[in-house]
Structures are given as structure tokens and as C-alpha cells.
Specification:
homodimer; 329 residues; SH3 type barrels; Fumarylacetoacetate hydrolase, domain 2; 19 strands
Chain lengths: 329, 329
């Protein structure tokens, strides 16, 4: 199943709604509406149908996934019984980030990206990268969805994309082995880890990882495809800028498997439903590796087989905000 | 006002409740209860009183702060009118993390800590540290409250504490100047950034910042003191281990002010109510700077004047979880 989040206009303003997406039919089914209709069709009062449907299909993907297997079971039931009556044209929908993760981590799970990044600095891949599937923690404050505009902060002149997979966690866990961890994967989405390379290069010398270099925007979507529909060993991955293909890779080239990443995250930590783990960039999956830069107004499309196309346009640069006042030496 | 979160047993299990804390009286007032009593006293039905009180005082501090000035106004009103009837003995309460932040960042705002850390590596403070108040993003998955046990992950033999302030954000903002940013500070809590120095030293060589070295536990509490009650230029800060004082500093020695930190975070990013910004370690505020290490079972107390004492005991080491299988060279 393909599950996404859209914004619809309600009486009190925009409301987040979960949808099941049927791309081949050009339709998306509002799951709360479908569930309400199903319940009312079985004799529920409209009030009870609305209340129960809202509990099963909240606006938060994390809250929905938190219900466990009951969530997907209910989605299948709603879709089968009343999908037609609750369906919307895919065109013209307002997409939200497919997930609203409690914690968001981004790994470096493709070796070719590490090799290329190290080569640019005249180095080899660090020995510790062979021992630990390292990650940084991303920020949920600037998550954007499919077709949402990418803010261009005033502090950067060097904008880049990163072509990644986003692994969405289905259930809680701690200290999992890789053999156990695979079952904790709910689905996969497309993850564009937009990067401001100039400030990223400065701040990362302070050894705390990327912050301003990444946190202005991360695009996640257009939706999640559940794991049962995907062969993670073979997913074609492409990036296009203004229609021109810049990157082409495959999920099968991953160095640390999704199960290994999930197990590592859970080591001494609480893995939570809705957590999002970025794979890191597939080999040659960003402009940095290709010697190319994005410009304001560029349209970046990331396509992953079995999921879809995540498309975002870059805004014009902001002028607001202020460079910190340097401390005296 | 001092505001915290506790867990109380409800019919369906533990419930998070917001409390106003009166340390000098040894009491904490359950704000939802006080508000319900106040409303019923003014003629609300019990059902309406319960419903309205739950909306004003949810279990989430972030949700409560999101109401804007109405939250503190309602807390004052509830406390003044019905505080006595809703009060609990401070002894024996089960504390939760004082905040449940959407995004959690941790800075390096005290210069002495940077100087000491650099000196240990035979270096000087990096020139870029004079230009940017760098931060890493912490993880909300392992937040713990006052008196909660600190898990000791299997992967570390070198445990440390860090004596920090936690700045809690009161309202949204973007691209703020330092002159504007001060008004976005809601209150201050105590922040113990527990650290596993061995794995931290390994993973940080990969340039993504700390992850396993920090994310197993961060203690936040015992509560938040609102800014109107604090002089941020002079707050005595102490750390004790098993009753012995290890660290002593003052908030006034901060190198980047809270307003500067908040402004920097908001540069090209959406600051959100409930966000938590750690100050970084005060000078000599961790065992690393003192050549000392924590042991299983140790009790760490962080005390900050005007706030209180945040006390946590270290667990025995976990045995679960698995070291990643190294990739072949």
C-alpha cells in the first residue's frame, strides 16, 4: 500500500489527512472519509462514524502507525469497502511530508558516496566507517512534502540535493539484532536531504555534525510504500534537475542494510513507531559528487522505483536573518 | 513560575500531568485538577470542566506552551484560585522530562569548556568557534526526568555527565535577530547531557557529530523556571556525584548569550514552541575536563540556582544489543 499525507481545507483551516494512493488510477483515497462511510454503512451514527474514523486515521502518520497492525488492516478495509466514495483526483492535492517522525536520523549507508566524498578531500574512507554505520540527527522543523517549495536560507550560495531512501519504522524496539530489526521496518519513502555546502563545510569542522547546512529543508515523500510491495535489493534511483538526469543509482548498492541500520539505531536507544532513518546518499547522488550546483528556481525530482517521484522547486534566497557577531579573539 | 511534568496513575494507565511547583512549600499543584475545580466552582458542569481543563493543561508541555500567553495566564489563575485543593506532596512524585521538545539542539556556548576540550587534544579553540555558535541535534527518544534511572548501554565503559542549562522556547519565529530572540525564551531547565565518551570519540571522527555517544539518555528537569524569575547573568551551577561536588560554574560565564543562540537557531529555520536548546557544558562541568569517570550506580545531581536539583542514578550496564559487523576492507 502507498500511504501519504495531504492538507485539506476544513472549517477551521487546513487539516492533515492520511491518504492511500493509487497512482495507476490517478486517485488518492481519504482514509478517514472512507472509514467514516464504511462505519455509517454498517449502522454507526454519523457522529460515531466520524469519531471512530478520526481515531483510526489521525492526521499524524506517526500516531497512525503507533496503532500497530490494526492501522494497515483498517486502511485495507476502508479502501476495499468505501475507497471509491472517498477518492480524490491525484492532481491538485496539497502534499504534506509523508511522515512526521519523533526522531529523524540520516546515515551514510552507501559506500560509493563515502569514497567520492573522501576523494574530494584527497583522503580514503575513514577506517571507523568500516566499523559503525554512523548517522547524524536531522531536524523535523523544516520537513517539507512533495511539491512544497524549498526555502533557500540567506546564509548559503551553494545549494545541493541528496538522493536517498527514507526508512519508516513500524514498531518500537531496543537492542535489536539485524535479524530482528527487519520486521520493524514499516515502509520506504524518498528522502531529499537538501544541503547548503558552504556553511556545512564550515560548521562540520567544529565536530558536532551538520546543522545549518541541512536543517533548512528536508523533503520526504511523495508517500510511503509499505515493505511488502518493495524489493529493497533492487530499486532504481534517479535524480533530475529541471528535467535533466543528474544521478542514477540503485538501492541494491547499499553497504549497510536497512536491518543493520535499524539494529544499530536501536542499540541502547528506544526505536519508536514513525521514526525516520535516511539511508544517506546513493553513489553519485548529489551535486557535490558531480561538481554541479543548484540555482534558485531549479526543480529537483527524485524518483525511486516502486515509490514514485518527489518533486520540489527551490525558492529565491531569503534576505532575512543575521550572521552571528564573531567573538573577539 | 516553576512548571513540570509528572506521571499519575489513571484508569487506563499512567497519565502525564502538568504541575506548578512550589518547592518552598513542598507542594506541586496538578494544574488540570486545579483548573477543573476552578471551572466547576464557577458553574461549569463536571464534564465541561474536565474537558476544558484537559485542553488548557494537556500532558505535553510543548502543546501547553503552544497556546501562547494564555497558558501562563491560565496557570496563574488556576494556581491562585484552586491550588490548595489540587496540591500534591512533592515527595514521592514520579517525574517526567520537564519538556517534550519537537526539536532538541545542544550548543557549545561556554568558552571554558571548548578551551579545556581542545587542550586535551593539544589544540587551541578552532577559529570557526569564534564565528558560529555551533550545535548538534540531540534525540528525544531517550529523554528522562528527575529521579529517573539513566540507562547504561552495553557499548560503553566510559560514562560522563555534562552540567548545562536547557533553554525552552515559548513561541515560533524565523530569522530572528538577537534583539528579538530574547522574547522567545519561555524558561530554563537543567540539562544533563549524559555522554559515553569512548564511542563518542570513535563516531565523531566520521564528522556527523555525536549519536550513540549521547542519545542513550538526556535528563531534563526537575522542572522549568519561567524567565521572569531568573537572572540569566548570574545563576550558580553545581554538579555533585554521590554527594561530592565535582563541578562549580555560573551561567554568567556564557560566551554566546541565550538570545544569540536562539537567533542563530532561527536563521533559515522554524523555531517552534517547546523546542529545547542546551547551552553546552559550563567550564569544568563534566568529568572529561576533570579526568574523572562515572560508575554504575552513581548518583549525579545537577543544581542550578533559581531552578532546583536534577538527580539521576546510573543503571547497571545493559548486556543486550550487538556491535555492528565490520565491513570487509
Amino acid at each position: 500500500m502507498k500511504l501519504g499525507r495531504i492538507s485539506r481545507d476544513g472549517i477551521d483551516g487546513p487539516e492533515a489527512r492520511l491518504v492511500a494512493v493509487l497512482p495507476e488510477q490517478g486517485r488518492a483515497v481519504d482514509l478517514r472519509t472512507a472509514e467514516r462511510l464504511r462505519l455509517v454503512g454498517r449502522g454507526a451514527t454519523p457522529e460515531a462514524g466520524t469519531r471512530l474514523a478520526a481515531a483510526t486515521f489521525p492526521g499524524s502518520m506517526t500516531s497512525a502507525i503507533g496503532a500497530g497492525p490494526a492501522f494497515l488492516e483498517a486502511a485495507h478495509e476502508a479502501l476495499t469497502r468505501c475507497g471509491d466514495d472517498a477518492s480524490l483526483d491525484l492532481e491538485g492535492l496539497t502534499w504534506l511530508p509523508a511522515v512526521d517522525p519523533p526522531v529523524m536520523r540520516d546515515c551514510m549507508a552507501f559506500k560509493e558516496h563515502l569514497t567520492n566524498a573522501a576523494a574530494r578531500l584527497g583522503q580514503e574512507v575513514h577506517p571507523i566507517a568500516y566499523e559503525l554505520p554512523a548517522y547524524y540527527k536531522a531536524s523535523q522543523s523544516s520537513l517539507i512534502g512533495h511539491e512544497q517549495v524549498v526555502p533557500w536560507p540567506a546564509y548559503t550560495n551553494w545549494m545541493d540535493y541528496e538522493l536517498e531512501l527514507g526508512f519508516v519504522i513500524g514498531r518500537a524496539g531496543r537492542n535489536l539484532t539485524p535479524e530482528q530489526a527487519g520486521a520493524h521496518l514499516f515502509g520506504v519513502t524518498i528522502y531529499n536531504d537538501f544541503s547548503a555546502r558552504d556553511i556545512q563545510g564550515r560548521e562540520m569542522q567544529l565536530n558536532l555534525g551538520p546543522a545549518k547546512g541541512k536543517d533548512f529543508a528536508t523533503a520526504v515523500g511523495p508517500w510511503i510504500t509499505t515493505v511488502d510491495e518493495l524489493d529493497l535489493a533492487d530499486l532504481d534511483m534517479r535524480a533530475r534537475v529541471n528535467g535533466e538526469e543528474w544521478s542514477h543509482g540503485n538501492a541494491g548498492s547499499i553497504w549497510w542494510s536497512p536491518a543493520e541500520l535499524i539494529a544499530y539505531v536501536s542499540w541502547g536507544e528506544n526505536l519508536q513507531p514513525g521514526d525516520l532513518i535516511g539511508s544517506g546518499t546513493v553513489g553519485r547522488g548529489c551535486g557535490l559528487e558531480l561538481g554541479r550546483r543548484l540555482q534558485p528556481g531549479d526543480v529537483v525530482e527524485l524518483e525511486v522505483a516502486g515509490i514514485g517521484v518527489l518533486r520540489n522547486r527551490l525558492a529565491q534566497p531569503e534576505r532575512e536573518g543575521r550572521e552571528p557577531t564573531p567573538r573577539p579573539r
